[in-house]
Amino acid sequence: xxxxxxxxxxxxxxxxxxxxxxxxxxxxxxxKALDGIRLxxxxxxSVALVxxxxxxxxxxxxxxxxxxxxxxxxxxxxxxxxxxxxASQRRRFARDVAYIYQDARGSLNPRATVAALLAxxxxxxRLRDERxxxxxxxxxxxxxxxxxxxxxxxxxxxSGGQVRRVAVARALACEPRVIVADESVAGLDVSVQAQLLNxxxxxxxxxxxxxxxxxxxxxxxxxxxxxxxVMYLGRIVExxxxxxxxxxxxxxxxxxxxxxxxxxxxxLAASLQGExxxxxxxxxxxxxxxxxxxxxxxxxxIDPAQTLLDGxxxxxxxxxxxx
Length: 323
Ligand SMILES: Nc1ncnc2c1ncn2[C@@H]1O[C@H](COP(=O)(O)OP(=O)(O)O)[C@@H](O)[C@H]1O
Ligand code: SF4
Ligand SMILES: [Mg+2]
Hints:
Layout: H1 2-9, E1 13-24, E2 29-41, E3 46-50, H2 57-64, E4 72-77, E5 80-81, H3 87-96, E6 97-100, H4 114-124, H5 133-143, H6 160-173, E7 178-182, H7 190-207, E8 210-215, H8 218-224, E9 227-232, E10 235-241, H9 242-247, H10 252-260, E11 307-309, E12 313-315
Parallel strand pairs: 3-8, 3-9, 6-7, 7-8
Antiparallel strand pairs: 1-2, 1-4, 4-5, 9-10, 10-12, 11-12
The structure holds adenosine-5'-diphosphate, iron/sulfur cluster and magnesium ion.
Iron/sulfur cluster binds next to loops.
């Protein structure tokens, strides 16, 4: 019993000082897409990964899921290094972790009906007898609020919102412990976004699923996730309870993001001053200093480490904002 509860308590994922570099300019330079990433996701937790385009969100997800190897640092699933999982652990991992791709339509086979798309993971992981599969498909359609008649449709016959629901149903078909979703509501109109977010929130609360939700929308983050990790140029600059961070951001980048992006569903405004620098050519010292309204002399010399403030949140800034 004790052994079982220990397994339950283990983090689902641990990223420990993870770095990911890509060679650019024909290998002459390295682009650091992730730098010093430390992120732990426990069962039942919901974490939003927030940041502008190019901050490394998708790369973090891909490294966490083992789709790309980290250049440095450790990526653990439970207590085991991802690269050391044996074949049966790998199958278990594929079932436990459902990934909803940024491009939901592109991730679905256009020649398969919705019923076939939903039956496939159930068969693959042998979760039901063959005769129970049609009933399971209906259950999944009910769960994501799609009419059962949708089972005969092809992805090309569905709207953007319906396709995302099919992607969510396909994720649930594996009976996962964690859903990882990359920009899953971006580009949808606000009412469809709200429906999908409600669905994910209910699933997370009712089924105790963990959720890692990638978004550039702080409104979405606050609606859906208890924790938020704000990324800037490959680094998590502020991380902790969403409500506290949005009430009083301590990192100047979080504050700037909130000012640029005050409303749910509003596109990220261009009012954040200056352009995001290239990850292949990071500023010296603090990587945010070229855009920071609170920059001081030492910011160009010292690269701020993540520091625990208020006992609950981590901030990587030499001069954090007052609480
Ligand atoms: N395969 C790749 N080769 C070279 N650079 C890449 C590759 N994948 C991502 N990058 C770069 O890494 C940085 C982070 O990208 P990404 O993780 O897609 O950010 P986000 O999802 O936050 O928009 C960007 O500068 C991007 O151009
Ligand atoms: S370390 Fe300096 S430049 Fe960086 S965010 Fe803090 S105040 Fe701004
Ligand atoms: Mg992305």
